[in-house]
Input
Amino acid sequence: MEPVWNGVLTCDYERTRPQASHLEWDLYTEALIRWPLILMDDPMPYGQLRRAGIVDIPEPTHRDLTSAWHRQLARLDYAVNLITRATHDRDVAGAVLDRVDDARRRGDVGDLTRALAAATAAFTRVNATHIVNWLLPEDHWERLLADLFGSRDAALICLSALQLPAAPGHILATQMQLPRQSEAATALDVEMAARQQEQAAPAAGLIAQRTRAARRREAWTTAALLAAAGNDQVVTEIRAMALLLGWAADSEERRKELRERFLTAAHAWCDLTGTDPSRIAAADLQGADADARR
Amino acid sequence: MHAVEVTRLADATDPVRHGRKATALATLIHHGLPVPHGLVLPAGFPDDQLASAVFTVLDWATSVDTRYGLVARSSAPAEDGPEASFAGLHTSRFTPTHPEALLAAIHEVRASANTPALAAYAAHRDVRPTPHLAVLLQPAIRPHAAGVLAATCDADDLAPWALDAVRGLALPVVDGSQRGERHHSTSDSPTPAEQDVILLPGAADELRQPPGEWIALPVAHGQPPQHAKIQTSAAGLLHLYAPAPIPDAHLLTTSTRNRLLRLASRAAAVLNLDRIDIEWAVTADDTIHILQARPLTSPVPDPADNAPHGDDSIWHGIPAAPGRGTGPAHHQRHEAIALTDKIPAGAVLICDNIGPEALPALLASPAAIAATSGGPLSHAAIVAREIGIPCVTALPRELLKVTPGTHLTVDGTAGTARLAVTAEEPPRRQPPALAGAAVVTQTRPTSIPLDGRAATLLLHLSGDELPLLRNDAEAASHAAQPPVGAFQPSEEPALPPLPTGYQEYRLPGLGRIAWPTDAGPLPSRLVALEDRETIHERPTHPAKLT
Output
């Protein structure tokens, strides 16, 4: 996100993703403009498209939408709901991409086109979560924790400890082959799963490191809750924050996996239909499937 | 008594009225050195005459090239002196040639004579700041490259010298936010720049373009055209994302560098200086402009040994202020660096850069500064040397991930930062004294804790199932291990029904606990541990529920 200029914020994927295709820029800009709808049922668009890859967001729109979202993120029920719906969106995208893969294997261009239209819509919902990279209330959380612990350094350590994906990141996962765990998995769950694998996996060091990280997350979550104890509103906010930080880290890992699958599928469709992949836009894949955009 | 009136820069001869910056530049002009034309509003120019002075300046501006606006710069009597540089403590402002904008820029520059940071610096250097300063107005130059040059001069030679160059205006290397292409008298080849943002004065139509649009960069003769995206623009300046550098091309050619060194040598001779600090700019037509010349108040350290080092715990950067300091790491955000009350005494401040706003932090006596950008010629690095705080700049960004509190040693002479050696480490924290304390955890211990705790309290969050088991009460009364209870960090609602053998207590201001009836007195405090170290604790003031 660029600095505010003349009352407008600019999100410029043309700069941050200079090697990306027109299609990738479309996927980001459309997901960005629709994140309020996808993540909190607010139909107000987050800015306007200037051109492929660039979105301009009036500062009042940014302020109103992010402050509304941040208020919701302090509620435990919303945090749980957000994680549930985002997980559902990922599952849907994964299932639709399975259909895409099946149509590819069969060489059925008609089915592939239809499945890809649905996958474009489904992946756009998943891609909306990329805003966690810069729109979470991290400054507020840092101040909250600094007040609770009486130390900014402790707040930073705590935030860092809580930003642990519930499941190993995709690079670590390829080494560890650990079973998928929920956001609520305790350090003991992680450790037990790790021990089951420890003998067989070649990456015992990685497993040990991840176990330590999970223990650290648990210890700092407990410390933050103890620090907040007695103030129900703050306890709730800390519980929500702990869930959201773990989810955000996890969400980015899973989103990247789905993005790779989607782009691979789109390129396969281009191969089958003789289309230049550097010239297609998201609208070309969505076709007339208007329902897929809902 | 002189009349107070706008003066041509070439006629600025009185350091008291025109300031040292202007008088030094005027001397250079008289000796034929390449200094841009300008006007000077003398110190003490009446406020109520500023509006009319603005029109005098704008009239003059029609006779020079002001495509890219004007720059208003401070020129104070005490500035740029041999005792104190006041580097970066006064303000410079770029401005379009509009009356209102120009007047605002002049006001802003004049107001910078009276800031708390400047007063603190003057007191530290034992010099007397003056409440008024002159304002120097010059056409804004749009350089291909600009920077600073520090040199020691004798009759025949200029050595040692160090030169930092960046694309566009010199501001990023002067304020320490970017690392310039570094040339040094002891090295044949320069160290490449690490520049993210290019600053350029903008033409009116360019300043109306939003972020994300493209601007043609001034390029040296013979180089291919290059464009850069606008990050933002304000106060007459374009902030552009630096494109990838042209491979195998130095920003400053050897020929231009040598011409610059010759100019510095002449300037030092003319100004009768043993050591000189010059701010310069080179335009696309290869013309060199001298923008400032002043005494160098402390020698520039030699360049760091850039040889690869095998020890991962040592980071190499550029030595910016000599000396060695050890202390706990404290991460300092750019926007918060002026808040001295938040800086632990004797800490090693880790920051991405040290700009002029870092001065209060420097005066708060930190052990050292470790910055991941900037160079030894940035203003704050100069001030760090003046007041004796060891400082290293351009360290790897990996340093920003160091855990707060980790003891670091910064060697501002060698240009290194490293984890403190054992002898300099403070004693590690002793295992916590847990007598009377209950340890709050989310997970039931898998073995009997032998850390002296009075009890383990399993964290219970309202809405979840109570973590206690039926047989916990039996285990709790077992003499060999501390009892196990539960802690809810809120006073409402009441705990779910407890297993036999447990009693519920309210901890005012904390929450509720489930405590085995035969486990003795309630804990006096609740503790959260990480790896057997206390990370937080709260005292308890229990009240038994009836």
Observations:
- Residues 74-274 of chain A form one domain.
- Chain A has two domains: 1-73, 74-274.
- Confidence is low (pLDDT under 50) at residues 170-184, 198-202, 290-294 of chain A.
- The interface with chain B takes residues 2-3, 5-6, 8, 10, 12, 14-15, 50, 54, 56, 149, 152-154, 156-157, 186-188, 215-216, 218-230, 232, 235, 239 of chain A (CB under 8 Å).
